[in-house]
Design a protein that fits this description.
mainly alpha; two-stranded antiparallel ribbon; globular
Length: 291
Amino acid sequence: MSQSASQSAQGSQSISPPIVAGAAKRKLSFENRYMAPLFITLILLLGHVSYGILEGLETIGIAIVVAIVAELVLGRIFYGKWLNLASAYISGISCGILIRSPAVWPFALASVLSIMSKYVLRVKGRHLWNPSNFGICVLLFLAPETVAALSVQWGNFKWPLIVIWVLGSIIIWRAKRIHISATYVASFFAFAFLRSYVTGDSWWAEVAPMTGPMYQLFVFFMITDPKTTVKSKKWQCIVVFFVAFVEMLLRLNHVVHAPLYALFLVGPTALLIEIWLESRRPVVLRESNAT
């Protein structure tokens, strides 16, 4: 008994240091979920300093504060605890950057709708829409006379664009989501050739929107959101291909906010199909076992 006890003690000693070291490393390392808020803040600063993309500091401040308060309240009501606020910050700052309006209320309402969608519009424990995409699209559709979306491009000043795309690629590579952004960008460029052929416009004019802050947020945050993308890597790429395809169709029909609406339509549809297939899987297995 004493020998086995000493062996188990030695085994625990040999195992515990790596475990402790790993835990300490995780505590000291900078978590990926905090990289996204920093990166989106960088987009905000570079875009505003270079081209003045903000309506005003007070509106983006309202959007962020409302999103954080909504997350705190709803998290406490639905889960009985205080949730991490990184996601709420991203939703709030996205609404603050992407919305254009002479009024203040759209910024607050977009943030509230974005956060509420995570708690209300759920199927089998999963929320269907990217939060900020949902809040912004609802306002663009219901209040087009008051609300518009950011459409500023970086122009000929290439360095902000290079910085954003390099850092964004590094961050989503760390998060293991770079295949999603790469597939969408490649699809967008390919469909730009088709749009150019159909409309007769220059190919450069068709790809120019990709140089704007709105597309940086869209490519690096909205379409890569882990909570609202399908699980399979192959199907993640297929889904964003269809997002780009639907966007092309909307653009050909002169829909102004085509990328936002395309994700609004395709993303939840893909999730619902995946949820339905997962719910069918146990039934299929039981039937096969019975036969």
